[in-house]
């Protein structure tokens, strides 16, 4: 049996692909190159090919919210994506398509539906994105990370699976560096691509933070802002007593994140669905900085769920940096209380998401045979 996996949410796609690999042949349809560096391989291409999975690049358009030249170029690319999707699916003839949302998923799932290939989709966020809302009709099954999302989809198609988290993230596999934990450790992350805004905030209070904490800072690797290079230069000028507390990296691979979470006392970062479920899995208190322009304010909704449960605090991105320093101090001073509150959170969310999805997929394919 063969399954085509596609979509923009990489972490759950990887988690399910790992679970599926021993049971089915997988092909992945995605974006081979970074958005801002056309000659640099994307994170999804690097991670998927590491699994030994065949990767197909799809050159399709994505809709932006601003009507400009980029919007028109993307509009022209949309039909190209449909023709490429048709070629890939006719070549590979998958038994089922599993989509994780995003603009790439739309041509793949639409063409697959017209070819009579069953389409299953997974929605990561509380309020569904545009691609998954459009694909709800053609989809046979709709997996949900959050039970609150059921209201947006036909009830007979819905399976509340939770959000798949890679097994590698749940244990220490590889250490990107060795940390002598002489002070509390903070993991700062802007998500898999990093966050220029968060990097700017941290830069303003870097000396104060390093005086009290050890920082693990994932900066991203934007060619436009070059934050990693800038922060490396700042680190080089720090006194040695502070410099030794600052661990900078552009990106952490999945096999490194288990160590990062295990050694961290609290997390400062965005509040996308992956971070949401990783925090629950590790029961880590957090200061969350929701992306202000995320679709449907999904990051704010995620942050409010965790803050409402008493396991996190919310810091608005435009607030003064010194307020973030104070909020970190508040969370650090009350870590035990925040951790204790995770007992009521973990009961609300399914922790066997990848297995539930794989079991449902295999049942569908077996029923067809």
Automatic annotation (TrEMBL):
GO terms for cellular component: plasma membrane. It comes from the Bacteria. This is UDP-N-acetylglucosamine--N-acetylmuramyl-(pentapeptide) pyrophosphoryl-undecaprenol N-acetylglucosamine transferase. It holds the Pfam family Glyco_transf_28. It comes from Candidatus Roizmanbacteria bacterium RIFCSPHIGHO2_01_FULL_39_12c. Keywords: Cell cycle, Cell division, Cell membrane, Cell shape, Cell wall biogenesis/degradation, Glycosyltransferase, Membrane, Peptidoglycan synthesis, Transferase, Transmembrane, Transmembrane helix. InterPro entries: GlcNAc_MurG (IPR006009), Glyco_trans_28_C (IPR007235), GlycoTrans_28_N (IPR004276). One of its GO terms (biological process) is regulation of cell shape. Coiled coil: none annotated. One of its GO terms (molecular function) is undecaprenyldiphospho-muramoylpentapeptide beta-N-acetylglucosaminyltransferase activity. Residues 6-143 form the Glycosyltransferase family 28 N-terminal domain. The chain crosses the membrane at residues 66-90, 96-121. Pathway: Cell wall biogenesis; peptidoglycan biosynthesis. Residues 185-345 form the Glycosyl transferase family 28 C-terminal domain. Its main location: membrane. The gene is murG. HAMAP family: MurG. Cell wall formation. Catalyzes the transfer of a GlcNAc subunit on undecaprenyl-pyrophosphoryl-MurNAc-pentapeptide (lipid intermediate I) to form undecaprenyl-pyrophosphoryl-MurNAc-(pentapeptide)GlcNAc (lipid intermediate II). It catalyses: di-trans,octa-cis-undecaprenyl diphospho-N-acetyl-alpha-D-muramoyl-L-alanyl-D-glutamyl-meso-2,6-diaminopimeloyl-D-alanyl-D-alanine + UDP-N-acetyl-alpha-D-glucosamine = di-trans,octa-cis-undecaprenyl diphospho-[N-acetyl-alpha-D-glucosaminyl-(1->4)]-N-acetyl-alpha-D-muramoyl-L-alanyl-D-glutamyl-meso-2,6-diaminopimeloyl-D-alanyl-D-alanine + UDP + H(+). UDP-N-acetyl-alpha-D-glucosamine binds at residues 6-8, 166, 192, 299. It is a peripheral membrane protein. It is found in: Cell membrane. Its EC number is 2.4.1.227. Belongs to the glycosyltransferase 28 family. MurG subfamily.
């Amino acid at each position: 049996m063969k399954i085509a996996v596609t979509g923009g949410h990489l972490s759950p796609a990887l988690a399910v692909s790992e679970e599926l690999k021993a049971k089915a042949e997988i092909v992945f349809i995605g974006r081979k190159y970074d958005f801002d560096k056309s000659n640099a391989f994307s994170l999804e291409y690097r991670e998927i090919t590491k699994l030994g999975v065949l990767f197909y690049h799809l050159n399709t358009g994505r809709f932006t919210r601003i009507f400009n030249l980029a919007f028109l170029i993307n509009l022209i690319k949309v039909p190209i994506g449909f023709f490429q999707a048709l070629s890939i699916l006719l070549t590979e003839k998958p038994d089922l398509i599993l989509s994780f949302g995003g603009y790439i998923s739309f041509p793949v799932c639409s063409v697959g539906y017209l070819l009579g290939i069953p389409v299953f989709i997974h929605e990561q966020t509380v309020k569904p994105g545009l691609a998954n809302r459009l694909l709800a009709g053609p989809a046979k099954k709709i997996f949900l990370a959050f039970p609150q999302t059921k209201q947006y989809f036909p009830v007979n198609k819905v399976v509340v699976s939770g959000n798949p988290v890679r097994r590698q993230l749940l244990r220490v596999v590889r250490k990107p560096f060795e940390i002598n934990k002489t002070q509390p450790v903070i993991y700062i992350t802007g998500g898999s691509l990093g966050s220029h805004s968060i990097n700017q905030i941290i830069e303003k209070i870097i000396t104060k933070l390093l005086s009290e904490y050890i920082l693990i800072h994932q900066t991203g690797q934007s060619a436009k802002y070059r934050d990693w290079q800038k922060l490396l230069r700042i680190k080089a000028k720090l006194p040695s007593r502070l410099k030794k507390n600052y661990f900078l990296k552009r990106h952490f691979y999945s096999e490194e994140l288990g160590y990062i979470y295990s050694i961290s006392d609290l997390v400062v970062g965005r509040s996308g669905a992956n971070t949401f479920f990783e925090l629950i899995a590790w029961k880590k208190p957090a200061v969350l900085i929701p992306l202000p322009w995320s679709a449907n304010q999904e990051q704010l909704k995620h942050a409010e769920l965790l803050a409402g449960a008493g396991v996190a605090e919310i810091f608005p991105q435009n607030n003064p940096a010194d307020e973030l320093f104070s909020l970190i101090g508040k969370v650090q001073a009350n870590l035990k209380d925040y951790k204790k509150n995770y007992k009521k959170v973990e009961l609300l969310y399914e922790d066997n998401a990848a297995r539930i999805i794989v079991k449902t997929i295999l049942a569908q394919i077996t029923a067809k045979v």
